[in-house]
Structures are given as structure tokens and as C-alpha cells.
Write a structure and sequence with these properties.
Length: 650
């Protein structure tokens, strides 16, 4: 499928010139900032060993292993002399012979150890539990490997325990917190403010290493960040092998400057999530959704039978009408169910069951029976659902094929996968999504290559289940193209000319139903020929034939002058007092799951806060501790509970 012409890489950014220079200290900021980027992109890790004639990249890289050695060997040191040319470090005990001397190599910033006296004869008085070398940045270097995964929760108390376990060193909470923040700043490509400044250079290198990738970056007043959009070249080429049903959704970022993440996904031939594009805006409104969907239209265009599925957000509805006038806009049946529960103040299981069956019904006859049952269970639901539009939330009335995408769950699943990553600064966040897509393309390409069947793996399993059920279904011939299939007490007509069945599964899913498979079993038709190529192994393989290439180390980036000089300020947001909220606010009608205690198996609390008595044996006899049993209030402290069940009977 031919895609629309690619949009310009940057909006409101000067054109790229041909004068290219390697990134230097001024481009990356200070020397500390450059070393931070090196740590992120895989520069040599800091060793905790010292030996003569060993070379270090900087004086700080020399100080770090010295501090680690002092904590590990339970001694302290001080800097005796230090300047820009040499440094001398001695043990805090003046009678100790331990010392290190290093000098800076001429013409470079590297430092070499020229003398190292290993012998250590510290007095016992100088060996303490709390060490002056346990500085926050040293603590950060010690726990850095534990924090590489951005989704891992590592609290300052965990840092304190880690330092105590590794080195036997006691550190304060503030040192642990600052050490953790030091690592976060390293791993997250600098502070949130620096991350916005780095974004243009990152996007430039992303387009250089992945030709065909489309990026858009717009700024507003005072050069403050406004919109951002990216679609990888591999995703653009792979979309033509996916069904033309897009699921769009938005979720809030959780970083310092917040913002909104926009997402567009679809299903591949194996029913897996295929990320098409994503974007970030300073807020969610009509203008932001219109801008994002215009970028989607420019890159992917409109295909025959194009369907967009979303929730009932008013801005999405207005933007889809304006940008995709010929596409069918369906709504998520789950979001509508929550609205239905909230409007009629009912949360019964019967309502949910009747509604879901009605929305998923394939043919009109089945729909009318289920819809009548739903309306009888909830008076007033008929007028409400008809006002929304039956074609927008039901499968049987939809003018375009929605296949099996009746909700925005695939978008919600991506949001859930990025729940911790959304706390990162913007450039680090974009890099994490690139890594996620890079891994998906690599793994799924290999799986599709190794699979030998004509259909994808998931579809093969579904067809196998339908074949098993088709074994018990009878068939009556009308002619060589029309068949009467008897399924229990119902009759279904299968037309092999237009590939239809009166159950409607055949034509709506474009996948052989049980009744069509009965015809295949009794005739010369091939089951795979009755399935859409969008389910085939070939399309599964081709959708992941593209490659998302990694980025080189930041010190080797070649950035044009106009891009490196382009500065972006963070969006102007008003930070509220107190700790930022991280848990999402439940949608209207959404039920929050309650924790279940693993001790008493009751809902509403966990094991740590459980106060319920537990049965001592299967007969149901229980024992309640003295602290919670009123009958023991005021009893002597010398009372002890029975040591065995038999003691209670004596």
C-alpha cells in the first residue's frame, strides 16, 4: 500500500545545513553532563580496583573506586594534595602507610595512578561504621546496577539496606535519597529541563539511523514545548499488512512537567499489539487531538474500510470527524458499559453479562433477542443506547468490519506497559519506547520466520478449536456452492460464492467459522483459502520485516549546527503543593479491584493488616491472640496459649 508523503522532520525548526560537527562538551553541556550521557549509552563502567599505571577517564572516576575500597576495607582517607596536575590521597590515620598518587596525562583529561601503597595499618580507633567517603554520588555509583530498569521501585530505605549489606556502612536517609536521585539523573538523560533541550538532537539521530521515520516537533510561545509526534519507518511499512482498525487513546504523563501521551495501535496477523505511532502534548483538548490525528492521516492515510476505535472523549469525536471524515468511528464497548452503570446506578453482573453479549452479537436476530433482555433488565437503557448509536458500539450494526476489536484494550495495554516509564523525562521516555518497539520487532520477526503453518500461530489455535466443534455438525447440500448446515436446533446457510454464513462470523471476522469448516471437511475447499490474508503467516512476517536500529553513543553523534542550537523550554505548568499523584483517577463507572488477603482469603485488606482469627484445624476451631480477644483483657501476663489442640480438651 502506498503511504502518504512523509511530513517534515521538524516544524518551526530551521532547515538542516550540511555543516556537521561532532558533539563536544559545549553541545552536551558541562563535563559532568557529558559523563552522565556516557554512562547511559554504555561507556566503560567504573572499576572498583586500583593498581599502578592504571588510567582513568577523569579525577572523579578515580575517586569513586577509592571510596568503594575504603568502605569495603573499613578505613577512611583524606586528600593530602590535589590540583589540576596531580593528586595525593592518604589514610586518615597519619601513621598508616596506605596512599595513592595520580597525575593527569599531558594533553588530555585522563589520569594515571603513578604510585599505590597497598599496605594498610590503620589503628582500630579509625575504623568506624559511618564513613566520610559514603557520599551521595558514591552511594549512587554503588547501587546503579539495581536501578537500570526504569520500572523498578527502589526506595531510599532499600538503598540504606543495600549499603549495609554490601559494605557494612550506615548512611542517612537523605544521603540515600540524594544517591538515588543522582542515579536517576544519570539514567534518565539528565534533569527534566535538560531532557527537553536534548530532544531535537535525539530525534535528529533517530531519523539518521532509521531513514523513513517521521517525527514532528512544535513549540509554542517563548519556545516552550507544545507537540511531539513520531512514527517509526518499520511501523509505517508494516501497517499495510495489518487490518485497517486503529485504536487510539491518551494517558497522562507522570513526570515533573506532566503532559499527555497519545497512542495509536492496531492488531497484527497474530492478534498481537502493533504500535503505529505516538505523540506527546502539553494538554488534552480539541487542538491537540486534531494535530495528532492529522499527523496520523499524513503518514498512514485512509484505507478502504478504515475504522477508528476510541472512548467517548468529546475532543476525540470532534477530531475524528474533521480529520477522518470517511472512516467509521466506533466507541469502546467497555467505556460505554461504565457510562451505563453510572447513569442508571446499577452494577449487577446480569447487566454486564447482557450488555457484553449484546455488543458482541454477530447477526441481527441474535442482537434483537439479547437487546430486548438488556432493556427489560435496565429500564431506560434502550433510549440511552439508541441515542449513542447502535452502530457505534455493536458488532452487528457496524457498517465497517471491526473484526475482534470491540474495545480500546490494546491501547490500554500499552499504557499499562509504560506505567513506570511515564515518570521519566521526555527524551528518556521516547528512548524507552524505541527500545520496546525494537525488541518487539526483533522477537516477533524471528517467531514468524520460524513458524511453518500458512496462518499465524494464534489463528491456527482458533481454527483448531473450530475444527473440533465442526466434527459434530451435520450438513445438507443445496448445490455445489450453497450448503445447509445443521448446528443443534439451528440451521445456517453457507454461500461459498460470496463467502458468507448466516451466523455472520464468516463475513465479519473474515475467518472461517465452524459452519464453513464443515463445508471444507465435506468438499474440496481449502480452509486457509477462506481466511483473510490479514491472518496469514506471510502477513505476520512482512509486518515485522522492518528493523528499528539502535542509536550510537552520544559522543559520536554528528549534529548540524542549526539543530544543536535549537533550544526547547519545558511547558509552562503550575506545580501543585505536595507529592505528585501517580495512581490514575478511575473513570466514571469503573470499579477498582480490592486487595485479597493471602492469610484469611477475604477482600478489602492484605496480610500485613489482617486482624481476622484463623482456624487451627479443619473443624473450624480458632484462636485469637490476647491483644485482640476481649476475654483476655486484663489477664495475667504469665498466661500462655495451649501448646497443642489436645491440651484444650483436658
Amino acid at each position: 500500500m502506498a503511504t502518504s508523503p512523509l511530513v517534515e522532520p521538524y516544524t518551526n525548526v530551521p532547515p538542516i545545513s550540511h555543516s556537521v560537527s561532532h558533539i563536544n562538551d559545549n553541545d552536551a553541556g558541562s563535563g559532568d553532563e557529558k559523563s552522565r550521557f556516557e554512562g547511559v549509552y554504555g561507556a566503560s563502567s567504573i572499576s572498583d580496583e586500583i593498581e599502578e599505571y592504571k588510567i582513568f577517564k577523569s579525577k572523579k572516576d578515580l575517586t569513586t573506586p577509592l571510596s568503594i575500597i575504603s568502605m569495603r576495607e573499613k578505613f577512611q582517607f583524606k586528600t593530602f594534595k590535589s590540583n589540576s596536575h596531580f593528586t595525593i590521597v592518604r589514610c586518615l590515620d597519619t601513621s598508616c602507610s596506605w596512599r595513592v598518587r595520580a597525575k593527569r596525562l599531558e594533553g588530555s583529561g585522563y589520569w594515571m595512578v603513578t604510585k599505590y601503597e597497598r599496605k594498610h595499618t590503620c589503628a582500630t580507633d579509625f575504623k568506624k561504621v559511618r564513613y566520610r567517603q559514603a557520599m551521595s554520588w558514591v552511594v549512587g555509583e554503588c547501587v546503579k546496577k539495581r536501578l537500570i530498569n526504569p520500572g523498578r521501585v527502589f526506595k531510599p530505605r532499600d538503598v540504606i539496606d543495600d549499603m549495609k549489606r554490601k559494605f557494612g556502612v550506615d548512611i542517612s536517609y537523605s544521603v540515600a535519597w540524594r544517591g538515588r536521585e543522582y542515579v536517576y539523573e544519570n539514567l534518565r538523560l539528565g534533569t527534566p529541563e535538560q531532557s527537553y533541550s536534548l530532544l531535537p538532537r535525539y530525534l535528529h539521530m533517530l531519523r539518521e539511523t532509521n531513514p523513513g521515520t517521521v517525527v514532528n516537533l512544535e513549540v509554542g510561545e517563548q519556545d516552550r514545548f507544545k507537540y511531539f509526534f513520531i512514527a517509526f519507518d518499520a511501523s509505517i511499512k508494516g501497517f499495510q499488512y495489518c487490518r485497517p482498525v486503529m485504536s487510539i487513546d491518551a494517558t497522562h504523563m507522570k513526570g515533573k512537567y506532566r503532559g499527555v501521551l497519545f497512542m495509536t495501535v492496531c492488531h497484527d496477523a497474530n492478534q498481537q499489539i502493533f504500535l503505529l505511532a505516538f505523540g506527546i502534548s502539553d494538554s488534552e483538548n480539541d487542538a491537540a487531538w486534531t494535530w495528532f490525528l492529522r499527523r496520523i492521516n499524513d503518514v498512514f492515510g485512509e484505507r478502504p474500510g478504515h475504522v477508528i476505535v476510541s472512548d467517548r472523549h468529546r475532543s476525540i469525536n470532534n477530531a475524528v470527524k474533521e480529520v477522518f471524515p470517511n472512516a467509521f468511528h466506533g466507541i469502546c464497548m467497555y467505556h460505554l458499559l461504565n457510562n451505563l452503570k453510572n447513569k442508571f446506578k446499577t452494577k449487577t453482573k446480569e447487566l454486564e453479562q447482557h450488555y457484553i453479549q449484546t455488543a458482541k452479537a454477530y447477526n441481527l436476530q441474535e442482537f434483537h433477542v439479547l437487546f430486548y433482555t438488556l432493556c427489560c433488565a435496565v429500564p431506560g437503557a434502550k433510549e440511552y443506547l439508541e441515542r449513542v448509536g447502535l452502530d457505534r458500539w455493536t458488532r452487528s450494526h457496524s457498517p465497517s468490519r471491526r473484526y475482534n476489536i470491540m474495545t480500546t484494550n490494546i491501547s490500554e495495554s500499552v499504557n499499562a506497559a509504560l506505567v513506570k516509564v511515564r515518570e521519566l523525562p521526555i527524551t528518556a521516555f521516547v528512548n524507552e519506547i524505541r527500545l520496546l518497539c525494537q525488541r518487539w520487532f526483533f522477537e516477533r520477526h524471528n517467531k514468524a520466520k520460524d513458524f511453518t503453518s500458512k496462518m499465524s500461530k494464534d489463528v491456527e489455535k482458533k481454527l483448531e478449536k473450530r475444527r473440533d466443534r465442526a466434527q459434530i455438525i451435520d450438513i445438507k447440500y443445496a448445490d455445489e456452492y450453497n450448503f445447509d448446515v445443521i448446528d443443534g436446533d439451528q440451521n445456517f446457510c453457507v454461500d461459498m460464492v460470496v463467502w458468507t454464513c448466516t451466523c455472520s462470523k464468516f463475513q465479519l471476522d473474515q475467518l472461517s467459522c465452524e459452519h464453513a469448516l464443515v463445508v471444507v471437511r465435506k468438499s474440496a475447499y481449502e480452509a486457509y483459502d477462506l481466511c483473510s490474508p490479514f491472518y496469514s503467516r506471510e502477513y505476520w512476517y512482512e509486518s515485522y520485516s522492518g528493523v528499528i536500529n539502535p542509536l550510537p553513543h552520544i559522543t559520536s553523534w554528528c549534529i548540524p549546527e542549526d539543530v544543536s542550537s535549537f533550544k526547547i523550554m519545558p511547558p509552562d505548568v503550575q506545580t501543585s503543593v505536595g507529592r505528585r499523584r501517580k495512581r490514575r483517577i478511575p473513570s466514571v463507572g469503573e470499579e477498582q479491584s480490592q486487595p485479597k488477603c493471602s492469610r484469611c482469603r477475604e477482600n478489602g485488606h492484605n496480610r500485613a493488616t489482617c486482624q481476622n482469627p484463623i482456624a487451627l484445624h479443619p473443624s473450624g476451631q480458632t484462636f485469637t491472640p490476647c491483644s485482640t480477644n476481649p476475654s483476655f483483657q486484663g489477664a495475667s501476663s504469665s498466661y500462655h496459649p495451649p501448646s497443642s489442640i489436645d491440651d484444650t480438651n483436658s
